[in-house]
Amino acid sequence: MEDEDDNQGDPEMKASEVNVPSDSKMGEDIDKLQSLLDSERRKNEDSLTQIKYLQADFENYRRRVAREVQEIEEYSTASLVRRVLPVLDDLDRAVAMAGKADDKGIVEGIRMVQKSLSAALENEGLQAIVAVGRPFNPELHEAIEKVQGGDGAEEIVVEEMRKGYTFKGKVLRPSAVKVALGTREGETPG
Asked: How does strand 175-181 pair with strand 141-148?
């Protein structure tokens, strides 16, 4: 036993007895670990890139859905406003005809209803198209009748048969108009 105790404290012990790996074996292990670490880093970078793409796709999806919901709300409101326009037209005609009536109370009542309805629709985004005296624009006006007598080369709206409206910047119903034809170069009116 004395021999065993003597060997444990012996600083001159051989490397083969301690089982210490050689320098070449450690170098191979370090290379393997470095290669494994590089591989895992690439996987992490790929995963991070995929997550960023998914996040961007989700943000785009969220914006698109919000825009579609807004368009649906505007379309449904525009549909309602379009169905109410004939009522507004009838009120306009009633006000025009009421000037001839004897009962001023009824006339004033019709005007109040017309103003209230017009104001409510304007708050939702309805705007009347100004037509008379303006150049004819086929995007805003529908020519019902054409007459001679325009000064200059432009066709000018001289009378509005039915009001036109835009809703939130888009034409909801074009104005039905009478257009004075302009004279072309070299052409004499009449």
From this structure: parallel
> From residue 124, how far is each of 49, 74, 78, 119, 160 by CA, in Å?
44, 9, 9, 9, 24
Domain extent listing, the chain: 126-190
Alpha helix positions (H), 9-156: 15-18, 23-98, 104-124
Give me the residue label for tokens 């065993």. Answer: 4
Q: Is 132 helix (H, G, I), strand (E, B) or coil?
A: coil
Output the six-digit token pair for 4: 């065993």
Residue closest to 160 by CA, chosen among 146, 148, 144, 177:
177
CATH of domain 126-190: 2.30.22.10
Q: What is the pLDDT of residues 94-117, one digit of tens each?
A: 887 776 766 777 888 888 888 899
CA 158 – CA 179 distance, rounded (Å): 6
